[in-house]
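Section 4.2 – Deliverable D4.2 (structural model, holo form)

The reporting period included a commitment to supply a predicted holo structure for the target in complex with zinc ion. Inputs used:
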Amino acid sequence: MPAMARPHGLEYHRSMLPDGIYLHRDEEAIWPASANALLVRDPDGAVLVDVGCGKEEVYLRLKDFLASHGLEIGDVHTVVLTHAHPDHMGAMRYLLEETRPRVLLHPVEAPLAAEPSRLNHTFDMALPLRYGINPFNLEKPDILEYFSNLCPMASADATHIIEPDGELELGRFRFKVVVTPGHANGLVSLFEPESGMLFTADAVGDVVAWYSPSSGGLTGFLEGLDRLAGLPAAFLVPSHGEISGSPSREIARTRERLLRREKKILGELAAGPVSFQELASRVFRNPMIAFFPGPQILRCHLDKLEAEGRVRCRGEEEGWLVEALQGVV
Ligand SMILES: [Zn+2]
Ligand SMILES: [Zn+2]
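Output (structure tokens):
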């Protein structure tokens, strides 16, 4: 009898998904429009976990994906949103024109989805100005404007709340809800114990997602990674990137990248105190990023380092000087 061909590479990883769960990976979209969606089939139709960004062509590709499974948008009876960011829920603007599914969100994400201008607070958009960083002379930086061309946002009202650290029943699956803040206070990862599938949303993926003090900070991010690392996952599905058969390696890689940034910050402080503004421009060489989200990320690191007694940030009158405390670099 001829040996069965073993699936390999991507095909192999896709084969890890349990029967009834399918991954929509929009290969044509580039970051940030590239958020994956999960389809869970059940006898009533379809559940979508995230719907992708608010560009029409992206939405049309989501519909093509559903069609490839013999489904129409009207078959989607439930939408689970991992968090209220434009690349994960922007397509709700089109979807809600065609159908009215149940919409599930974490309780702290629900008000943001209902009124997305509130994201200016969770993204700490005013923070750079506080440190005199305003290279584009903006009166009031606006996150929705920032995303308007890349990946327009939509609003959506939650019809149901996801119970933090509870369970979520979708189709024949029972997912454990794992909240992983840092990038978004109510960022939800989902673990399916039977297959060992860990859907990490933006907590782990190809790129390290940005983080800001009002979204849970670096400490929240690292604690979330601890929670994910504690699960007996067999494979990991990120929102941005491909399926990986090595969940613990992926989680560790994200942690290493975060700590490498911390090391760089401490390295920049080795020669003496530096202003917050100067430090941001040294850590984030790209001027766009040195304005957003660099200062927000830097503030998260300084919050952690200050709490650990490793740096001191001096106040406004001294121009927000940051210094390493002796013997810690
Ligand atoms: Zn996000
Ligand atoms: Zn994302």
